[in-house]
Design brief:
There is one protein chain. With 302 residues, the protein is α/β, with parallel strands linked by helices. The protein folds into 2 domains: 146 residues, Alpha-Beta Complex (Quinone Oxidoreductase, Chain A, domain 1); 126 residues, NAD(P)-binding Rossmann-like Domain (Rossmann fold, 3-Layer(aba) Sandwich), CATH 3.40.50. It is built from 10 helices and 16 strands. Strands 3, 5, 6, 7, 8, 15 and 16 form a 7-stranded mixed sheet that branches. Strand 12, helix 7 and strand 13 form a beta-alpha-beta unit. The radius of gyration is 19 Å and the shape is globular. The two termini are 15 Å apart.
């Protein structure tokens, strides 16, 4: 097969679309012919060595959608269309992965859409509901509401019956309000702490200074979930709210529930661009530059 292989850590130039040994499924695994793979910041952070040492050469990519070519897992058969976690690396024509971390793709969901669910959608879902326990009638604040994770978070919070506030740049105001946000804060024009208060759940998809800016918005007993940096534990103790760093865990039940929302039209998937996998270096350059609205997707095979 061909795959995007990293032989050494570095910039996008280290990405090579080349021949690589076919993966072989073990008991409990499936072999999937990949149609699409999602692009995430975690991919280029791993490429650049941001997650520490890793065995090289390595195939990148945490999420994919495709067709089962061989099954050694209960519940899946050759020809099934599936999506979810790409254990052996999703930037490839073939991937092996356990049957416990994927789900069957509904007919109403495209491979492009399905390839964004494992990381972006599931991160938002787990952060809001599993970690923070967001409920109907509460107020949710989503930073980076136009991004891959953020645009899912806005929709999930609104669908759950929460008053939903999002932050972002001026160019994304209409887009995010169109997703269902009740209010929008342009971070370049407003101090979010002056514009928003008494938040039950703040979900920070950006990190850094943005995390600190969300601290004053929370009510006592509220919850701040971060996914891109260290949680402000000292501030949480001082102000009386809870905080956590969430790292997404594969969960097929979550995958199915999210896919059903997409298939029904209740949740929209914003795909910024579908890029041929041979142009993976450009995909990483675009992602790493920031400001992507929604998700970038790699097209691997038809």
């Amino acid at each position: 097969m061909k795959a995007v292989v990293v032989h050494e850590t570095g910039g996008p130039e280290v990405l090579r679309w080349e021949e690589f040994p076919d993966p072989e499924p073990d008991d409990g695994e499936v072999l999937v012919r990949v149609h699409c793979a999602g692009v995430n910041p975690a991919d280029w952070k791993r490429r650049s060595g941001g997650y520490g040492s890793a065995d090289l050469p390595q195939v990148l990519g945490f999420e994919m959608s495709g067709t089962v070519a061989e099954s050694r897992a209960d519940g899946f058969a050759e020809g099934d269309e599936v999506f979810g976690y790409a254990a052996s690396g999703g930037y490839a024509e073939l991937v092996t992965t356990p049957g416990t971390v994927i789900a069957k793709k509904p007919e109403g969901v495209t491979h492009e859409q399905a390839s964004t669910i494992q990381v972006a959608a599931q991160t938002a879902w787990q952060s809001l509901f599993q970690v923070a326990g967001l409920e109907s009638g509460q107020t949710a604040l989503i930073s980076g509401g136009a991004g891959g994770v953020g645009h899912y978070g806005v929709q999930f919070a609104k669908h759950a019956g929460a008053r939903t506030i999002a932050t972002g740049s001026a160019r994304n105001r209409d887009f995010v309000l169109g997703l269902g946000a009740d209010e929008y804060v342009d971070y370049a024009e407003q101090d979010v702490a002056e514009a928003v208060s008494e938040v039950d759940v703040a979900f920070d998809t950006v990190g850094g200074e943005v995390t600190e800016s969300l601290v004053p918005t929370l009510r006592e007993g509220g919850f701040l979930v971060v996914i891109a940096g260290a949680p402000p534990e000292d501030a949480a103790k001082e102000r009386g709210f809870r905080t956590a760093l969430h790292v997404t865990e594969p969960n097929p039940d979550h995958l199915r529930r999210i896919a059903d929302l997409i298939a029904s039209g209740d949740v929209r998937v914003e795909i910024a661009e579908v890029i041929p996998i041979a142009e993976v270096r450009r995909a990483h350059e675009v992602s790493e530059a920031g400001h992507v609205r929604g998700k970038l997707v790699l097209s691997v095979s038809g």
